């Protein structure tokens, strides 16, 4: 038999057999495709459920699984999961994360805060909310938590998740290594440089500006104070507890009269008047008080009923400003010469923020601009009339008719500041040139 015979092609009329072969191969291919799709789906499901367990292990035993999942995959999954919406945890999981609520970080108006850790090593702070009779029902709770959880900004503390069951409402936040600003601001060691404090003020203002002006639905904080400004490992500030006012009522230590929200000393004067509309400008007032505390490095909170106190630092700042001696005051506060111009600026911004009339207070985006420099701050009018007279008139804007003056837009002068034509560095450039 010759080789040519052996390799002869099939006769051209064998079309039926060829078609059958094609159909069979296609069928085999389809089966292979379906089987591999099914296997991939199953594997993906298994990985996802493994990862879910890794994020929220129901029992201590499951913790072991975490280390079986490779860390980067888990980390990515966790991030993606948390970016979508806050994760719901069970009470048992929170108990595991906090090692049975072993370490308490602090206690505030909403409840206690505990240190914890996800099984992947990410540190967390678990805020167990007081359950009062007025606490929100589950749907409301979920709706509010959903809003807080979707609010992301570099200067806002992240909400990773929550727990809501018959007995427990809790929020799971990112852990902030350096705790709250008050601990550093009012410590005798003064370990935070003034420059850093200025950065903290700007970052905090940006966080609040985001809540007020950039969120789909404006969020009023109601409780701006150094205790609610948390510092990360680099001492960068993040505003904490936003959205909580709508979530749950506070305990009695933070409530003095019906309808009063926030912390005494930081709360805007409009809270003391019945039926006066409360707007986002109440946060601007509280931020002003915080700025005074940064300048003076001391707590401004006055005992209730101590309105006449001569020693109230914000009032002193106004008096010195009126005399044109704000720089001297910053010197008396122990601020180094190189930082005094910035401190003077900060004090002026603070005086604007604490204006009696909410309308006269600048919006937070204007506050950011004024704090950052590069604009000339208009001299603020006298604040604190409310300390001496009672009634809604005190909280009305000083001059009506100039309503448009209260608005601000990028690149234009506003009621609170003027754009400078010369760059801010010009002063230094002239000094250098004249040496
Ligand atoms: N995410 C967090 N990371 C690290 N520490 C935290 C975190 N959240 C809160 N803390 C600590 O727990 C303390 C108590 O916080 P909490 O918010 O309960 O009280 P507060 O801020 O003093 O009062 P308020 O109820 O008015 O907010 C804070 O001072 C802070 O030191
Ligand atoms: Mg707080």
From TrEMBL:
Highest taxon, organism lineage: Eukaryota
Keyword annotations: ATP-binding, Kinase, Membrane, Nucleotide-binding, Serine/threonine-protein kinase, Signal, Transferase, Transmembrane, Transmembrane helix
Binding-site residues for ATP, renumbered to this chain: 127
Compartment list: Membrane
One Pfam family hit: PK_Tyr_Ser-Thr
PROSITE patterns, sorted: PROTEIN_KINASE_ATP, PROTEIN_KINASE_DOM, PROTEIN_KINASE_ST
Primary localization: membrane
Domain Protein kinase: 99-388
InterPro entries, alphabetized: Kinase-like_dom_sf (IPR011009), Prot_kinase_dom (IPR000719), Protein_kinase_ATP_BS (IPR017441), Ser-Thr/Tyr_kinase_cat_dom (IPR001245), Ser/Thr_kinase_AS (IPR008271)
GO molecular function: ATP binding; protein serine/threonine kinase activity
Transmembrane segments: 20-40
Membrane topology: Single-pass membrane protein
Signal peptide from the UniProt entry: none
GO cellular component terms given for this protein: membrane
PANTHER family, sorted: OS07G0415500 PROTEIN, RECEPTOR-LIKE SERINE_THREONINE-PROTEIN KINASE
Stated family: Belongs to the protein kinase superfamily.
Protein name from the UniProt record: Protein kinase domain-containing protein
Organism: Penstemon smallii
């Amino acid at each position: 038999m010759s080789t040519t015979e052996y390799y002869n092609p099939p006769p051209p009329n064998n079309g039926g057999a060829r078609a059958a072969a094609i159909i069979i191969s296609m069928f085999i291919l389809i089966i292979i495709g379906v089987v591999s799709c099914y296997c991939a789906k199953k594997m993906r499901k298994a990985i996802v459920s493994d990862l879910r367990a890794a994020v929220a292990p129901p029992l201590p035993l499951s913790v072991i699984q975490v280390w079986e999942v490779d860390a980067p995959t888990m980390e990515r999954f966790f991030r993606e999961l948390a970016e979508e919406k806050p994760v719901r945890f069970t009470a048992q999981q929170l108990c595991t994360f906090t090692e049975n609520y072993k370490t308490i970080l602090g206690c505030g108006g909403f409840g206690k805060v505990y240190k914890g850790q996800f099984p992947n090593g990410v540190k967390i702070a678990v805020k167990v909310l007081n359950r009062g009779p007025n606490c929100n029902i589950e749907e409301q709770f979920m709706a509010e938590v959903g809003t807080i959880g979707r609010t992301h900004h570099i200067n806002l503390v992240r909400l990773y998740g929550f727990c809501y069951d018959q007995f427990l409402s809790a929020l799971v936040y990112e852990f902030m290594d350096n705790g709250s600003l008050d601990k550093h601001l009012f410590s005798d060691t003064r370990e935070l440089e003034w420059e850093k404090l200025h950065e903290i003020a700007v970052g905090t203002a940006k966080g609040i500006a985001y809540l007020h002006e950039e969120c789909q639905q404006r969020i009023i904080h109601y409780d701006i104070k150094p205790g609610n400004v948390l510092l990360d490992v680099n001492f960068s500030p993040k505003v904490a507890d936003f959205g909580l006012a709508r979530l749950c009522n506070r305990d009695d230590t933070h409530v003095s009269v019906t309808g009063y929200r926030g912390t005494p000393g930081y709360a805007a004067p409009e809270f003391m008047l019945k039926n006066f509309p409360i707007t986002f400008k109440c946060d601007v007032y509280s931020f002003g008080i915080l700025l005074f505390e940064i300048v003076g490095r001391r707590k401004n909170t006055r005992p209730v009923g101590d309105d006449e106190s001569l020693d109230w630092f914000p009032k002193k700042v106004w008096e010195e400003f009126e005399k044109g001696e704000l720089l001297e005051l910053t010197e008396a506060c122990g601020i180094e010469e190189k930082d005094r111009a910035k401190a003077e600026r900060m004090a002026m911004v603070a005086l604007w923020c604490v204006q009696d009339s909410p309308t006269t207070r600048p919006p937070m985006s204007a506050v950011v601009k004024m704090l950052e420099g590069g604009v000339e701050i208009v001299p603020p009018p006298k604040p604190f009339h409310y300390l001496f007279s009672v009634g809604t008139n005190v909280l009305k804007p000083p001059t009506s008719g100039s309503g448009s003056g209260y608005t601000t837009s990028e690149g234009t002068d506003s009621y609170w500041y003027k754009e400078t034509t010369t760059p801010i560095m010009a002063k230094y450039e002239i000094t250098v040139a004249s040496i």
